[in-house]
Amino acid sequence: MKSRLFLLSQLILVICLVLSKCSNDHFIRNYTGIPFSDNKYNDGAQTIPGKIQCEYFDFGGEGIAYHDLDIVNSGSGNLNKQNNNYLHEFRMDESVDISYTKPNQIDNNTFNFIQPEMNQLYVGWTEPGEWLNYTINVQTKGIYKIGLMYTSNGEGQISLSINSNDITGPIDILSTNVSEDTLDWRQWHHWNYLDSIAEVKLKKGLQILTIHTISNGNMNYDYLLFTLKN
């Protein structure tokens, strides 16, 4: 009886693995997003190991390359007025909200946990339920540690998936709110870097990475850093 149960469990495991592979292959075959490119960045799929710049989410639009809860880019072309400046107009016709780090005690303020690079584009105005897709090229299979450069006005959660399969579960993101800062708007501009938000096993090759905003929102995403452990 035990041997039959064991064989049955092994059969179920094999079926699950086959279905999972078929699901992955189906997702990739039917995905119509394409890697971001413009006159400044034309390197194709972002590579791992390395940085995944969050503003370089795929082309493809709402429901394919991303999901955003409104149709207005709150940063490019709005907060950052349209003026023929690359940083002000970056992807301003897409719904994902994008801005960039600024000096004069805005993003290089004394309440930062770590000082960010100036004139660095980032995704902001995030809300729970939103997500972003990235075509990535994993050059070496293995276990990767993931770091995150971000701000978060309050405790939040994100998750990551590969080819539509969750690989991390909910990840707690520490608040960067600093009560000593009396400028309310700057609570969204206290930058921090988390060295290891998760460790994941990745296979080699082209894949689709998705960042999901799960709870709180109010987070800005600069980049994810994937470092190979073994």
- Tally of individual helices: 2
How many distinct domains? 1
The largest sheet, given as strand count, sense and whether it forms a barrel, is: 7 strands, mixed
What form results from the Cα inertia axes?
globular
Strand content: 35-45%
Instruction: Please tell me how large the radius of gyration is.
Output: 19 Å
At the fourth level of CATH, the homologous superfamily is Galactose-binding domain-like
Give, in order, the helices and strands.
Answer: HEEEEEHEEEEEEEEEE
The overall pLDDT average reads 92
Which class of secondary structure composition applies to the elements? alpha+beta
Outline the low-pLDDT stretches.
16-20
Q: CATH topology, anyone?
A: Jelly Rolls
CATH top level is Mainly Beta
The CATH architecture can be given as Sandwich
| Secondary structure tally: strands | 15
Description of the structure:
- This protein is α+β, with helices and mostly antiparallel strands and 230 residues long.
- Mean pLDDT is 92; it is low at 16-20.
- The N and C termini lie far apart (41 Å).
- The chain is built from two helices and 15 strands.
- The chain has helices at 2-30, 86-89, and strands spanning 46-48, 50-53, 66-67, 76-77, 80-81, 98-100, 121-123, 131-138, 142-152, 156-162, 165-166, 171-173, 192-202, 205-215, 219-228.
- The protein has a single domain (31-228), classed as Galactose-binding domain-like (Jelly Rolls).
- The strands form four sheets. Strands 1, 3, 8, 10, 11, 12 and 14 form a seven-stranded mixed β-sheet that branches. A four-stranded antiparallel β-sheet has the order 2-15-9-13, with no helix packed on it.
